[in-house]
């Protein structure tokens, strides 16, 4: 069967790197259940490399929208998809966007504003990986929330065995103070660890500030003017000694490679976005585990008070524990490439 005649499945997940990685178990469930279909992921073009690395997607359909909004339209060509899957969220905009393509079948959570979709009930207090696997399982397509491992990248790491410190985040509410990241980096360097600082687009000044305070060189900073290319970033994380990071995409990348990590949470509980519950992934959070899963504003303009409660010593102790723990088993081999339309 050629690509032109294969039935197509369109999956909407037009968000960031971490969002895409939490959807990998669901994508794997779809791939196993529908091996003869072309699996198309609607996501930002900048995620093409990460999309290919999952080995689950045949093609990326580029999307564009400000912030975390639902795209206004999708550049879909040809006949309607055989199946459309809403992994984007629970609001009517994402449902209607897919319904406008007239798929033969649409899988989504139930919502009063879209009564034609008879999906399962949405649970607000649910881990993101579990949420999307539960959706597919309800429709008879089993998916395992712990099936999140990525194949080891073939690219050489720019700093094999280094401790990776990533001080940035999408919003100030999830940014631990740079002077504390610097103190952690300095003390780790003082005990013989190589430390590198990573930065996304627009985070060059932050990364340089942390590196300078930690006594690191300019060559110890990767990215900043632009994102680190995914192949290089993946190799760095896969072969790192440990990753110290806030609640961002890099935390999910460390989970996918089984790389020891310390993840700092603030406005959102780790029970929604945290790594697998294994010793090599250490979670720090000063929230109340019995209270609301989103006690703060994840997009707030200042660091969340729960995040500010985390101390330098806590992070260092957690890093020590993470590095001493056995690594979780990882998938081996190379991923199947995906193309962008």
Key phrases:
6-stranded parallel sheet; 2 domains; Rossmann fold; single chain; globular; alpha/beta
* Mass-distribution shape: globular
Mean pLDDT: 93
CATH topological fold name of the largest domain:
Rossmann fold
Please work out how many helical segments DSSP would assign.
Answer: 12
As for the number of domains, it is 2
The value of Rg in angstroms is: 20 Å
Structural class: alpha/beta
Order of helices and strands: EHHEHEEHEHEHEHEHEHEHEHHE
CATH architecture of the largest domain: 3-Layer(aba) Sandwich
- Can you tell me the CATH class of the largest domain? Alpha Beta
Quaternary structure: single chain
Helical amount: 25-40%
DSSP, total strands: 12
Please summarize the sheet with the most strands: 6 strands, parallel
Offer a concise description of the structure.
The protein is α/β, with parallel strands linked by helices. 30% of the residues lie in helices and 15% in strands. The chain has twelve helices and twelve strands.
Report on this structure:
It is a single chain. With 341 residues, the protein is α/β, with parallel strands linked by helices. Helix content is 30%, strand content 15%. It folds into 2 domains: 8-148, Glycogen Phosphorylase B (Rossmann fold), CATH 3.40.50; 163-324, 3-Layer(aba) Sandwich (Rossmann fold). The protein has a 6-stranded parallel sheet, with helices on both faces. A 6-stranded parallel sheet has the order 8-7-6-9-10-11, with helices on both faces. Strand 7 (195-199), helix 7 (204-214) and strand 8 (221-223) form a beta-alpha-beta unit. Mean pLDDT is 93; it is low at 330-341.
């Amino acid at each position: 069967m050629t690509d032109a005649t294969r039935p197509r499945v369109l999956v909407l997940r037009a968000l960031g790197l971490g969002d895409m990685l939490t959807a990998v178990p669901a994508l794997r469930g779809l791939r196993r259940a529908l091996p003869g279909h072309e699996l198309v992921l609607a996501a930002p073009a900048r995620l093409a490399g990460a999309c290919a690395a999952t080995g689950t997607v045949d093609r990326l359909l580029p999307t564009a929208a400000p912030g975390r909004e639902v795209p206004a339209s999708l550049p879909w060509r040809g006949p309607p998809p055989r199946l459309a899957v809403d992994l984007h969220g629970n609001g009517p905009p994402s449902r209607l966007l897919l319904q406008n393509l007239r798929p033969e079948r649409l899988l989504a959570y139930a919502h009063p504003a879209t009564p034609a979709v008879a999906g399962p009930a949405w649970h607000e207090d649910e881990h993101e990986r579990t949420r999307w696997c539960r959706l597919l399982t309800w429709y008879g397509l089993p998916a395992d929330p712990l099936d999140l491992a990525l194949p080891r990248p073939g690219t050489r790491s720019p700093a094999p065995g280094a401790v990776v410190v990533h001080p940035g985040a999408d919003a100030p509410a999830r940014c631990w103070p740079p002077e504390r990241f610097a103190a952690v980096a300095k003390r780790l360097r003082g005990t013989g660890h190589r430390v590198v600082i990573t930065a996304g687009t627009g985070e060059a000044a932050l990364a340089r500030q942390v590196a300078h305070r930690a006594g690191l060189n300019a060559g110890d900073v990767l990215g900043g003017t632009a994102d680190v290319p995914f192949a290089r970033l993946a190799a760095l994380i896969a072969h790192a000694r440990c990753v110290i990071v806030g609640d961002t995409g890099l935390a999910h990348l460390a989970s996918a490679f089984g790389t020891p990590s310390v993840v700092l949470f603030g406005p959102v509980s780790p029970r929604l976005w945290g790594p697998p519950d294994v010793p090599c992934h250490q979670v720090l959070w000063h929230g109340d585990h019995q209270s609301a899963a989103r006690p703060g504003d994840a997009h707030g303009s200042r660091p969340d008070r729960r995040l500010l409660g985390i101390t330098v010593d806590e992070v260092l102790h957690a890093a020590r524990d993470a590095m001493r723990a056995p690594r979780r088993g990882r998938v081996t081999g190379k991923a199947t490439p995906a193309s962008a339309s």
